[in-house]
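step 4 of 6: structure.
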Amino acid sequence: MIELRKVSKRFADHVVLDQVDLTVEDGQTVALLGPSGVGKSVLLKHIIGLIKPDKGEVLVDGLHVAALKRAALAELRTKIGYVFQNGALFDSMDVAENIRLGITDQTCSEDDSYCTNRVTECLRLVNLPPEVGLKYPGELSGGMRKRVGIARAIAGKPKYLLYDEPTSGLDPMNADVIDALIERLQEELGVTSVVVSHDVRGSFRVADRVALLWQAKIRAIGTPEEILASRDHAVQQFLERDLEMAVIQSESEQGAT
Amino acid sequence: MAQGAELTLDVRRLVGRWSLRAAGHAGRFTFLAVDMVRGLTEWRIYLPRAFAQAMSIGYGSLFIVLLVAGFTGAVTSLQAGYQFTGSVPLYIYGAVIGESVILELGPVLTGLILAGRIGARYAAELGTMRVTEQIDALESLGRSPVSHLILPRVLAGMVMIPALTMFANVTGFLSGWLAAKSSIGITNADFIFGARYYFRPFDLWYSMIKAGFFAGAVTMIPCYIGYNTQQGAEGVGRATTLAVVAASVTILLLDTLLAKLLLNH
């Protein structure tokens, strides 16, 4: 279980998170929505201990992430797969080496045949052929890079998966492919996930619960149906703006065809 | 009056801000150094990478280091000829060229060249990895960026920079010898006699000690600056420039300090 209790964070004078509470039960997928720059990625980085809170507690598997010693934090991180917004692939390594680095179990990572099979399996899980393993990140398209990022994140068979804007910068078709992939991975791997996004449509598709981060606080949380039925003006405003964007996008696509 | 008081206040604030920033850097640098010492047990991770880095920086820097050392030795010899001809015995040239190259020119020029070549490369590589979240990605996989990225670079530099300095010393000495022969007509016997007469084995140790300290500056400072890069492409550019300047200035400061401590005690 992932739990954030009264987490606050500020950078200089800018308050990013203000007494944020959020619980993600085991096996659940929570989508964290919010406008760009509101602090969604910052919240996600708290969960994996890349950023420490100024106040409050972050608990993963009952462990206080910010209070963990180096070795314990590294051990906890092996249970968490993190999909970075821009892939964050190691550009000096080919795709196979990138995914291999995601195999966090030391015994397995030293077994060449296990690693080769696991890399192929992860590529298959993200709908990529094994030949992609020989390419370098610079040779991949945006969508493929995202999928390789996901493959690396799942290579270590994590218990938790954190997605940072998995569909940002992608065209609607590729975004749908990634959303379908997230859905399928939830079913096949049964992991607990947090998906940070500003894409309402995709988030509603993959999430069991949706939370809206608004002005440094969790403004609303509930099932997609509950969020859609919310009368909170901030929620309404955010949803309407995103749905308008979806209409504009679909109209422009129709125009193009 | 009021303007004077405001100016004093501003200066105090500025000094305070700079002091805090310097203390912050000192603290973070110390933490990084401690992390490196701790990471030394993870030799399975850093040794293969250090070997690859050593090959890359050693082989890649050899040409420019030898080129500069060769020209420096020759110019030192020609200038010595211009200054001393007729006023000192010819064998002194062997001493002047040998000692100048081994004690000062070999290690310092090699250090400064490598501050530009290796320092800029390390800062740019790590800075780019920082701003593209590759370092965060490494941490998120439970892996230590120090063992994967910093230790291999520092260790490769600590081995290769003294080795390159030794090559520079030999090249500078030989080119100085050739230049002296062709310009002032010194015999081989005179040149060797002068070089051996004033040579002490400690001179070579001193050269290597300096090269070791310079290697620390050329590798650790750029790694620290690159590792802490912020703000995108502009940040990487700034980090690279800062790394070269900081490493070069540190080399000059260490040069003075080591001369005072080891030669004038």
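step 5 of 6: annotate
 - The CA atoms of residues 28 and 224 of chain B lie 9 Å apart.
 - Residues 43-263 of chain B form one domain.
step 6 of 6: archive
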